[in-house]
């Protein structure tokens, strides 16, 4: 839009007052005749006028922008969450701004400060990491919903699953099948979700009779879950005690473990069963050998928007734990 185009420009072209144009731009058309509305809309198109969302937010005290800050959009699970949230926000009349932090706290802060300057109405934090700006924003009481990982700066509204129970369900599955050498693979720099999945798995195995020494554990460095699985697989399959069942705390870790297994001449699931916690639809195309705890990421958007709307109305929204299934 040219810098000199304003409501006054539209009003002059349409032959109406600035206040009339303002009302029509803001959707209040009942006080104008159909002919006037048509004239104003034609003038808006002719001069290329576009409403300024920041200016409108300053005037009304409300913005239609919602920021989603995601940790890694290469992950199909996060991409599915982003897609479902954008659709739910659009249906509710909001516009989503999407930022990928690549799991880096300094980039997360950069985006949080930028979105704050844009006067967004709310924040959706997908797999957030601890950072100074997040602590500051959380303490300010800004409308925020945390997704898949809980607020690393304290309590906060949360949408996700009971990760500990999911880990325990995998342990029960291995025990019921008679597996004797279970293992778990997870990131060394784990999130609350990863830690809860691992702790739930280990606790249930202990309940089912395993000693700590009998449970194989392998972690991996870095932020790439593919690389974590691949590196951990080298240690697991190269050791004296080879597992016959492995919990991978994400689909991508399972992909990495499977790649290493194939290189060692092992058959999955014949020689070793892999179970992940994610279960994205991509698995049926690229990993039919993988069993998963399937998380309903496609419905996260509706739950996130419902939570934001409660917060905007001043009502309480603590957490929403969604059901999952063993696929």
TrEMBL record:
GO terms for molecular function: DNA-binding transcription factor activity; transcription cis-regulatory region binding. PANTHER family: HTH-TYPE TRANSCRIPTIONAL REGULATOR GALS, LACI-RELATED TRANSCRIPTIONAL REPRESSOR. InterPro entries: Cro/C1-type_HTH (IPR001387), HTH_LacI (IPR000843), LacI/GalR-like_sensor (IPR046335), Lambda_DNA-bd_dom_sf (IPR010982), Peripla_BP_I (IPR028082). Residues 6-50 form the HTH cro/C1-type domain. PROSITE patterns: HTH_CROC1, HTH_LACI_2. It comes from the Bacteria. This is LacI family transcriptional regulator. It holds the Pfam family Peripla_BP_3. It comes from Bradyrhizobium manausense. Residues 5-60 form the HTH lacI-type domain. Keywords: DNA-binding, Transcription, Transcription regulation. The lineage of its organism: Bacteria, Pseudomonadati, Pseudomonadota, Alphaproteobacteria, Hyphomicrobiales.
